[in-house]
Amino acid sequence: MPETAAEVRAGFRSGVSGPTSGLAPGFRQANLLVVPADWAYDVLLFTHRNPDPCPVLDVTDTGSRHTPLAHDADLRTDLPLYRVWRDGRLVDEPTDITDVWREDSVTFLTGCSFTFDSALTSAGLPWRYPGRNVAMYVTNRECRPAGRFHGPLVVSMRPVPSALIGTAFRITTLMPTSHGAPIHLGDPGELGIRDLSKPDFGDAADIQPGDLPMFWACGVTLQAAVVASRPPFAITHAPGHMFITDVREPQVAV
Amino acid sequence: MPETAAEVRAGFRSGVSGPTSGLAPGFRQANLLVVPADWAYDVLLFTHRNPDPCPVLDVTDTGSRHTPLAHDADLRTDLPLYRVWRDGRLVDEPTDITDVWREDSVTFLTGCSFTFDSALTSAGLPWRYPGRNVAMYVTNRECRPAGRFHGPLVVSMRPVPSALIGTAFRITTLMPTSHGAPIHLGDPGELGIRDLSKPDFGDAADIQPGDLPMFWACGVTLQAAVVASRPPFAITHAPGHMFITDVREPQVAV
C-alpha cells in the first residue's frame, strides 16, 4: 500500500481513483478550486471572510499548475477525481483536467478535515465510516459573501463517543488550517439538517449508541458557492477526493 | 484618561494625535492600508502569502469607510495620524483623510503587535520605551511577492530580560492575528540590522544589561511594500499610530 503523499499522487496520475480519507497519514490534504482570474479576487476575499470552511494553504499564480505545497505535482492530473462546472452546473467528473485547463486559471488550495483524521484515530476515536467517504451536509447558515461569490456553509460530520468529545475538541482546535474546532455538537436541526442518514455529499456514517454527532466546517463550502454564484467556469475536486500535499502535519501530544 | 476603544477613537476624530501603544488595553489594534480596487487582489494575495507580517482582520467592500471591527468608526477620521502615498512616495501626513478619499478605495486592516503589549506587561515584562513609539526596522528578508506587490519584511523589536524570554514566546505564539511568535531573537545582524539605536521607524528602546532583542514581524511591512511597489495611490496609518478596534483580545493564563 502506498504510504507517502508522492506515491499516492503517482497512483492518481496513472488513473487510480477513490476517496482520500485515511491515505498518506500525517500529510496535509487540500480542497481544490480553479476559477478564471477575473473571479479570483472575489474568491480570495470570500476565503478571508470565511476562514473556518476555507483556510487557504496556497493560491497559485495565474495559469500555473504547480504549488509549493508539492513541488513535483501537477494540479491537472494528481487528484483522484475532479468536477468541472459551467455557470454553476456540474458538467463532467473526470480523473484528469488537462483538456479543459485554461491559461487564465487561478487555483485555490484550502485545508481539509481529513488532515486531522489520523490524529483523531491515534487518540482512540473510532472510525465510523470504514471504506466510505465522510458525510457532508449543506447547512442553513449563509457564509459572509464577497462580491459575486456567496453560498451556504457546508459541514462534515463525525460521530464521537461522548467520553471522547473533549479529546476531539482539543486536537482539532490546534489545527486551524484543517478547519479547527468543531462548529457544532449535537442536534443537527440547529444547522437545518433534517436527516443524518441522507448526507448531501459523501456517505452516511454509523452512529453508535452513546455517540454525539460533531460537525466541522467543510471545504466543500467552496463548491456550494460555485453552485450558488455561477462563475462561467470552475473546476473543483470531487467531494472527499482531495489533493494530498507533501506538507507533514506536526503531531503534538494534547 | 480614555479607557475604551470608542473613547480613544472619539479623541482622534476631534484632532488628538499620538502613538497608540498602551492605549485602550485589551482592545485589538490594527494597521491600515488603503489602495485602489485595481490593486486589491495583489495586496490580498500578498497578505495571504505573508501571514506573519500581514494577518488580515478585515477587508472592506470597495468604497466603504466602515468595518465590522468597530461599527461606529469612520476609517477616514478615527486614526491619530495617516500617511498619503503617490507612486510609492510619501506626499502628506494628515490627521484626517476625508479630502483625499477615493470611491474606488479598498481598505485592509491587519493585526498589530501593540495588541499583545498589555499581555506582555501584565506578565511582568518591563516597558523599555516609556512614552515613545516601538522601534521598527527594515530587514534583509524579502516577502513572498504577489503580482505587482512586493517588498522587504519589517520587524518591531522589544528588549526582553533573558529570564522572561519563554514567557514572551508563550504569550505571543497564542496570538497569531497579532503577528504571533517572534521571528528572531538575538543578533540583529542576521536580519541585516546594523544599529539598533537607529530604527527605520519609531524610536529606539532602552536595552538594559541582561536584555535580549526580540523581533516580531511588523505590519509596517505593508508600507515598505507600498514604497517598493509604487501603486499610483495609497493611504496608510503613520507607523505606531494604529486603528483601535472594538474587538476585545481574549486574555488567557499561559
SSE map:
2 copies of one chain form a homodimer.
Chain A: H1 5-13, E1 27-36, H2 37-49, E2 56-59, E3 82-86, E4 89-92, E5 105-111, H3 114-122, E6 135-142, E7 152-161, H4 165-173, E8 184-185, E9 211-217, H5 221-229, E10 234-237, E11 243-248
Antiparallel strand pairs in A: 1-5, 1-10, 1-11, 2-5, 3-4, 3-10, 6-7, 7-9, 8-9
Report on this structure.
Chains A, B: InterPro entries: D-Glu_cyclase, Putative_hydro-lyase, UPF0317. Chains A, B: It is an enzyme of class 4 (lyase). Chains A, B: One of its GO terms (molecular function) is lyase activity. The structure is a homodimer of 254-residue chains. Chain A is of the alpha+beta class. Chain A has two domains: 5-113 and 228-248, PSTPO5379-like, CATH 3.40.1640.10; 116-217, PSTPO5379-like domain (PSTPO5379-like fold, 2-Layer Sandwich). Chain A has helices spanning 5-13, 37-49, 114-122, 165-173, 221-229; strands spanning 27-36, 56-59, 82-86, 89-92, 105-111, 135-142, 152-161, 184-185, 211-217, 234-237, 243-248. In chain A, the strands form two sheets. In chain A, strands 1, 2, 3, 4, 5, 10 and 11 form a seven-stranded antiparallel beta sheet that branches. A four-stranded antiparallel beta sheet of chain A has the order 6-7-9-8, with helices on one face. Chain A binds chain B through residues 40-41, 44-45, 48-49, 56, 59, and chain B through 40-41, 44-45, 48-49, 56, 59.
